[in-house]
């Protein structure tokens, strides 16, 4: 039992040989269910923001004066950015040498980006009033621009967070823990979506909270921000990543390609992949 309360499992000699991949994870540790619960909780905050996006983006953008015929085109930008930037981000994440690990810096950046996008969306009218001055048409244009940019930044960051979050789980968990963590993530996805729609559906106008924050939309905004920040902190502090430069270096004594091994020797290594990118590859595995 290690200091953090996780169980250490000694691998057999065959497991040591077959498991010495260049992207080795902390696979010798089994984590307590409480750690896995904290690790998976970020999905609750993420789905909360998705629920807010579904409910609020349409009325806010249309109220700002965007023509309805262009509304569907607005959602084109986030998927296009995902196609162009997503693989690059995944590849850089795989090789990230930050002392905080390979995945957590990207998770943090995407969470901050989503919150910035949500803030631009919710306060787009106020920002437009400041930028547009007394000119009504100028305020309308600024409002649409700020609102659309905010909505697309939020949507892009929420979508792209999926890859490093899944890769983080695969990097730090053994196979049994991966199965438990994914089950918990599924639970939190449902919980976050339900809470988001419930909070959106409550009439906050007649409550003291609405008087404090000024409007229904801003109350929902505060709930979303607090939920996402708290669940992100839980996730980032749940299981420590091993920095890339501190991982064990492969020996040059022997090099094998998983796909070239006979079935009885491969032990599943033919499925080895680089998580975080959109392609699978067989790469050399060095063994003693």
From TrEMBL:
Keyword entries, A-Z: Membrane, Transmembrane, Transmembrane helix, Transport
Span of the signal peptide: none
Pfam families per UniProt: MFS_2
Record Gene3D superfamilies: MFS general substrate transporter like domains
Membrane topology: Multi-pass membrane protein
Region named Disordered: 1-26
Transmembrane segments: 48-66, 72-93, 105-123, 219-239
Predominant subcellular localization, coarse grouping: membrane
Subcellular location, record wording: Membrane
Entry keyword annotation includes Membrane: yes
InterPro entries: MFS_trans_sf
Sequence ranges of Polar residues compositional bias: 10-26
Gene Ontology CC terms: membrane
PANTHER family in UniProt: MAJOR FACILITATOR SUPERFAMILY (MFS) PROFILE DOMAIN-CONTAINING PROTEIN, SUGAR TRANSPORTER
Record-given protein name: Uncharacterized protein
Organism name: Ciona intestinalis (Transparent sea squirt)
């Amino acid at each position: 039992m290690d200091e953090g309360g996780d169980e250490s499992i000694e691998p057999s000699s065959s497991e040591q040989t077959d498991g010495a991949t260049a992207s080795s994870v902390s696979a010798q540790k089994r984590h307590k269910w409480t750690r896995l619960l904290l690790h998976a909780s970020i999905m609750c905050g993420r789905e909360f923001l998705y629920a807010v996006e579904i409910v609020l983006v349409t009325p806010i953008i249309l109220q700002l004066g965007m023509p309805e015929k262009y509304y569907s085109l607005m959602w084109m930008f986030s998927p296009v950015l995902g196609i162009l930037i997503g693989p690059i981000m995944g590849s850089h994440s795989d090789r990230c040498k930050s002392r905080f690990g390979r995945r957590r810096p990207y998770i943090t950046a995407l969470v901050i980006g989503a919150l910035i996008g949500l803030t631009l969306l919710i306060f787009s009218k106020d920002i437009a009033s400041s930028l547009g001055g007394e000119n009504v048409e100028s305020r309308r244009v600024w409002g649409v621009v700020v609102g659309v940019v905010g909505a697309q930044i939020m949507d892009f960051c929420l979508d792209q967070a999926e890859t490093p979050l899944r890769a983080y789980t695969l990097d730090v968990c053994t196979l049994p823990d991966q199965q438990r963590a994914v089950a918990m993530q599924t639970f939190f996805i449902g919980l976050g979506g339900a809470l988001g729609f419930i909070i959106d559906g409550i009439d906050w106008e007649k409550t003291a909270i609405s008087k404090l924050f000024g409007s229904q939309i801003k109350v929902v905004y505060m709930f979303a921000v607090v939920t996402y920040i708290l669940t992100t902190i839980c996730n980032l502090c749940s299981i420590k990543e091993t920095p890339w430069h501190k991982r064990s270096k492969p020996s040059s004594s022997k090099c094998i390609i998983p796909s070239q091994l006979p079935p009885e020797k491969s032990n599943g290594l033919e499925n080895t992949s680089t998580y975080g990118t959109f392609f699978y590859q067989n790469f050399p595995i060095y063994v003693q």
